Please model this.
Amino acid sequence: MTSAPQSAAPTPAPALALQGLEKSFGAIRIIRGIDLVIPAGERHAVIGPNGAGKSTLFHLISGHYRPTTGSIRLNGEEIAGLAPEKINRRGLSRSFQITNIFPQLSVWENIRCATLWSMGYRYAFWRNVERLADAREKTERILGEINLLHRWNVPAGELAYAEQRALEIGLAIAGDASVLLLDEPMAGMSHAETERMVGLIRTVSEGRTLLMIEHDMSVIFGLADRISVLVYGELLASDTPENIKSNAAVQEAYLGTEAA
Ligand SMILES: Nc1ncnc2c1ncn2[C@@H]1O[C@H](COP(=O)(O)OP(=O)(O)OP(=O)(O)O)[C@@H](O)[C@H]1O
Model:
């Protein structure tokens, strides 16, 4: 009889694991039993027709909605039903379309606030000068990652729309999130801005897990390791972009209408 090798490394917990996830509003089942495992480091896109439940799914994962039933594990820990700020503290950050930005503060101050907050400077900003130097370095590094270093002194409210979206993503990563949720990050952008945003998302998701809702197929197929197709609150398929493209059921339910 052979015994299992003792040195086998434990398998790391997936970044996100959804099991039997459901959400109803009154009698209407919007999310109808979703099982999905997203390994750490994966770039995962959720697509689906209007009203399929994509935003509702994000609201459940980020804690803005409480599931009717089911489990959501973040890095192995159950988070279903926790408040958004608790989920955020456990390493999941969601970018909201510009609503987190302080428009009167400069780009630098916006990121610096989020950085200080994440480092525990809630009330005693003056406490530790050395750690303030850490915060400065981190702020600079994040501004570099989101290509806004040259705009550091501009009030956030005066940034171009695409730059504001980049700043939003900067705020999301300032808290050292290991899992990043982006809801239509390219919405309303020109072709050139979209291309730049794809590059930016590729950079900031390096070493993190990315879950994004996006409608632009060329973006998704170029960025995602795997794609989940949500239709009427159920996952029709969850697979590599190549397999999703050639999946007959997906084509019929979704891509066929896009290509038409
Ligand atoms: N708070 C709510 N109360 C009742 N119904 C809701 C609520 N939130 C969402 N819904 C319904 O759930 C369904 C799914 O909505 P959701 O916004 O999640 O879809 P979506 O896939 O993100 O759509 P879109 O691509 O248009 O943004 C819709 O029919 C919507 O009307």
About this structure: The pocket of adenosine-5'-triphosphate is lined by residues 25, 30, 48, 50-56 (CB under 6 Å). The chain is about 35% helix and 25% strand.
